[in-house]
Design brief:
CATH topology: Rossmann fold
CATH architecture: 3-Layer(aba) Sandwich
Oligomer: single chain
CATH class: Alpha Beta
Helix content: 25-40%
Largest sheet: 10 strands, mixed
Strand content: 25-35%
Bound molecules: adenosine-5'-triphosphate, magnesium ion
Number of strands: 12
Shape: globular
Order of helices and strands: EEEHEHHEHEHEHHEHEEEE
Length: 251
């Protein structure tokens, strides 16, 4: 009789110092993670670091779909952490999909551009094509609420999320979806209330007051196939991006 060997899930490194040890070494491969938090909590930085370090340190190509700021603004902001996105874009290891220029009516010299208004299927087909074009292993969509604004009918967001879920599973990419939560501490984790159901993991970024100063914290609210604590861990956004302090000490 053959005994099936236990196959541990392959882990995808986040690229965020201190974070992977909180989730058994990384995200389960192919998983979809919802990154939620209020404004300015670091969602875009976290997601960009995941894509950038994927290319730089782990040789895993990644696609960043930016629906909140133009691709060129994203590159410029991320350059302040010493990250040269363009270098990896030229090498075909990163693709940034610009979902903003057309909306604000600015010309875009970008290679990957989303049209102003789109329907669900075109949007998903486009992402699928870009992922295949660079053989991406990682994907970020920043953010879910801004997809909704772009749709011909906002109420189609549920349809998008359900279809997105299916194509993500099929593509096998490890994905971070960002969203904003009015009150993540008290159960309301996402804007539409269904994002957390399609996501196999939920990470909450938070700002809390301590000694008249706002401090940053990260909480892993859910991560399937993973042992993780429910503690809040402090993190900083520093000159090289995000660093998490798993021992809980800095503040
Ligand atoms: N180069 C930098 N060095 C240190 N901290 C920075 C740097 N750039 C940005 N920050 C900090 O990161 C914050 C913004 O982070 P980020 O844009 O990732 O947040 P977000 O959650 O995506 O916000 P939004 O709701 O605007 O999308 C800034 O408000 C600032 O506090
Ligand atoms: Mg952002």
């Amino acid at each position: 009789m053959r005994i099936m060997a236990y196959q541990p899930v392959r882990r995808v490194k986040s690229g965020i110092p201190g974070f992977d040890e909180l989730i058994e070494g990384g995200f389960p491969e192919g998983t979809t993670v919802l990154l939620t938090g209020g404004t300015g909590t670091g969602k875009t930085t976290f997601a960009a670091q995941f894509i950038y370090k994927g290319a730089e340190e782990y040789g895993e190509p990644g696609v960043f779909v930016t629906l909140e700021e133009r691709a060129r603004d994203l590159r410029r902001e991320m350059a302040s952490f010493g990250w040269d996105f363009e270098k990896y874009e030229k090498e075909g290891k990163i693709a940034i999909v610009d979902g903003v220029s057309s909306v604000v009516g600015l010309p875009s010299e970008e290679k990957f551009v989303l049209e102003d208004r789109f329907n669900v299927d075109n949007f998903l087909r486009y992402i699928y094509r870009v992922v295949k074009a660079i053989n991406a292993k990682r994907l970020v969509i920043d953010s879910i609420p801004s997809i909704a604004l772009r749709l011909e009918e906002e109420r189609k967001i549920r349809e998008v999320l359900l279809k997105l879920n299916t194509i993500l599973l099929e593509m096998g990419v490890t994905t971070i979806l960002t969203t904003e939560a009015p009150d993540p501490q008290h159960g309301k984790l996402s804007r539409y209330g269904i994002e957390e159901f399609i996501a196999r993991g939920v990470i909450v970024l938070d700002l809390q007051e301590k000694n008249i100063e706002l401090k940053r914290y990260v909480l892993i609210r859910k991560m399937r196939e993973t042992r993780h604590s429910m503690k809040k861990y402090p993190f900083e956004i520093g000159p090289n991006g995000i660093v998490v302090y798993p021992s809980g000490e800095i503040y």
